[in-house]
From TrEMBL:
<dbReference type="InterPro" id="IPR012967">
    <property type="entry name" value="COMT_dimerisation"/>
</dbReference>
<dbReference type="GO" id="GO:0046983">
    <property type="term" value="F:protein dimerization activity"/>
</dbReference>
<protein>
    <submittedName>
        <fullName>Hydroxyneurosporene-O-methyltransferase</fullName>
    </submittedName>
</protein>
<dbReference type="Pfam" id="PF00891">
    <property type="entry name" value="Methyltransf_2"/>
</dbReference>
<dbReference type="GO" id="GO:0008171">
    <property type="term" value="F:O-methyltransferase activity"/>
</dbReference>
<dbReference type="InterPro" id="IPR029063">
    <property type="entry name" value="SAM-dependent_MTases_sf"/>
</dbReference>
<keyword id="KW-0489">Methyltransferase</keyword>
<dbReference type="GO" id="GO:0032259">
    <property type="term" value="P:methylation"/>
</dbReference>
<dbReference type="InterPro" id="IPR036388">
    <property type="entry name" value="WH-like_DNA-bd_sf"/>
</dbReference>
<dbReference type="InterPro" id="IPR001077">
    <property type="entry name" value="COMT_C"/>
</dbReference>
<feature type="domain" description="O-methyltransferase dimerisation">
    <location>
        <begin position="2"/>
        <end position="72"/>
    </location>
</feature>
<feature type="active site" description="Proton acceptor">
    <location>
        <position position="229"/>
    </location>
</feature>
<keyword id="KW-0949">S-adenosyl-L-methionine</keyword>
<dbReference type="InterPro" id="IPR016461">
    <property type="entry name" value="COMT-like"/>
</dbReference>
<feature type="domain" description="O-methyltransferase C-terminal">
    <location>
        <begin position="98"/>
        <end position="299"/>
    </location>
</feature>
<dbReference type="InterPro" id="IPR036390">
    <property type="entry name" value="WH_DNA-bd_sf"/>
</dbReference>
<dbReference type="Pfam" id="PF08100">
    <property type="entry name" value="Dimerisation"/>
</dbReference>
Amino acid sequence: MAFTYSAALRAVAALRVADQLAAGPRPVAEVAAAVGVDAGALARILRLLAGRGIFAEEADGRFGLAPAGQALRSDAAVPARSGVLMFTDAMFWTTSYELASTLRRDGATFADVFGMPLGEYFDRHADKEALFYDGMERVSDAENPLIAASYEFPASGTVADVGGRYGGLLAQVLRANPGLRGVLLDKPEEVAKHRLDTPELAGRWEVVGGDFFTSVPPADVLVLKRILHNLDDGDCVRLLRNCRAALHPGGTVLVVDAIVPADPAPHQSTAMDFMMLAAMTGKERTEAEIAPLLSAAGLRLTRLVPTHSVMSIVEAVPH
Ligand SMILES: C[S@@+](CC[C@H](N)C(=O)[O-])C[C@H]1O[C@@H](n2cnc3c(N)ncnc32)[C@H](O)[C@@H]1O
């Protein structure tokens, strides 16, 4: 019955319950009145989520936010609310429910359930497209500093984020490594909305609107974050070959993805992979699945660097 946790989390995120507790614990009746729901019912949901470390019940019966629940506040440093609403939206939830048909038909459940592929669904439902990209952006905001801090970048040279969307990771890397210059490559319509234009990073970056299958900007470090997981093996090799060709001598390619560990212990990468299977195309790969793709592109996997997030960094250099 693990789905009850996701559903309860979705309900309190949708109702913005955490914002009601921002100043500290309150009686449930007060919170329920403020968000317009029944107090008895809300108390049952808070009790379930207290068991998951989201809320905490005081000795006097009031409920407050447990440390993990603080992230649901709208004013949290890295708000989790839009990520929760995105991952529990019908586009993932309903397709997950229909997983057996995905397995029988080898994919295409999204189109079966929603009557059109995901891309077309986004074209027709701007609100869902915004929910998805806003949620992913908040998830990236949470993991980007952890990724930037986990890898020892060179002291000088150029780092290019290939498919780096608005430059969130690149900004973190440049902040942490003042001797580096950055290049952001993404589709023209995405880079037009970049977030690199801050006084702190002035003069250290360049933005390129283009197609990474056509060319990749030359650099000492090329980063591909959440890119290979969207691509089939053939397209991964095509892109990695472009990266190999664009690398400065002595350069490095960093594939940053939710790498599935060989160890069978529970790991969030398998949940990410489940969603790719149920609702999208693409997959999360193991190190052993990525190594041959790098090799086919003239690159050699040198090591896997963990981060304090679901993401790992696969480092590769030319053969
Ligand atoms: C899943 S998002 C990852 C964004 C970012 N790296 C992150 O981790 O938050 C994939 C990105 O690749 C970009 N992209 C997809 N195909 C591309 C192409 N052919 N050329 C350039 N960028 C592309 C998309 O616009 C999108 O920003």
